[in-house]
Amino acid sequence: MIKLNSVDSCLHCLTIADIPGLIALSDSVGWDYDEPEIHTILSIGTVFGHKDASGTLLSCAAIIPYDDKLASIGMVIVHPSSQGKGFGRQLMQACMTSVSTDTTIMLIATPEGEPLYKNLRFQTVDRIRKFIAERFVPEAPLQNEAIDEFEMVPMDLDDFSSVVELDKAALGSRRTHFLETRMRQATTCLVVKNRSSKIIGYGFAVQGPVNLIAGPIVAENAIMAEHILYKLTQNHTGRVRIDVPDEQTAFHTYLEQNGFIQVSHPPVMVANTDSLPRRAGTYWAIGAQIYG
Fold this sequence. Notes:
Blueprint: E1 2-3, E2 9-13, H1 19-28, H2 35-44, E3 46-52, E4 59-65, E5 70-78, H3 87-97, E6 104-108, H4 114-119, E7 123-133, E8 150-154, H5 160-171, H6 176-185, E9 188-194, E10 199-207, E11 212-218, H7 222-232, E12 240-245, H8 249-257, E13 261-264, E14 267-271, E15 283-285
Parallel strand pairs: 5-6, 11-12
Antiparallel strand pairs: 1-2, 2-3, 3-4, 4-5, 6-14, 7-12, 7-13, 7-14, 8-9, 9-10, 10-11, 11-15
Helix pairs in contact: 2-6
């Protein structure tokens, strides 16, 4: 526990006992974190938060370190009643000092948080497009001779090491623990294999309290990404959310043609460097904004 200048609040490293408070805090700003998602975050990262003298949680922020000098910050929340007290800056400083100074720190900023992140020397290097569909029902699966070159099958444990390497090339950092944990949380996990049974793509879908979240999706091309998304959502009848890197313009067009609406276009920001790690151009959907 870190005692702050404020008489009434202290900064804590949070645990699973704080999950109800984290859900309530998320609700206070209209976000939809649920217990399984917070379990995942706590198991792969560190979550800091302010509590008042009665133990009520007033704020939180999470940092998730990956394997290769890369970390992601997310779930930065300050209760509306406690905003303007400097909690956001204290949370960010706690997250940033928890990793080495040569670690690239990335985050996907909200409009409310962006001025603080700029003040802490984060700079924008990319953007993400957040899409929502009330129901994703393509008119028909796309047909193309390229699809004869691959098949999609449920992921099994023997596929995991190949998925980790594909993900590393797509993101620019290996994130073994995240993928292990997300795989257990996911509703559906698929891999794409070529004619030689080599794994050349994968996709996860996770059911949240409001949306089915499609991602991460890693694929060689847009056609493959479209088929992964179709397969991940094939038996789903509710809302679908997918967050897509700015560069994947062909995928944006496909989504908009099939019932998705772009609802935001937030910046990807980094600190301790001026760029993201080198990526292979195969990252078509992120897992969620907290994971980068």
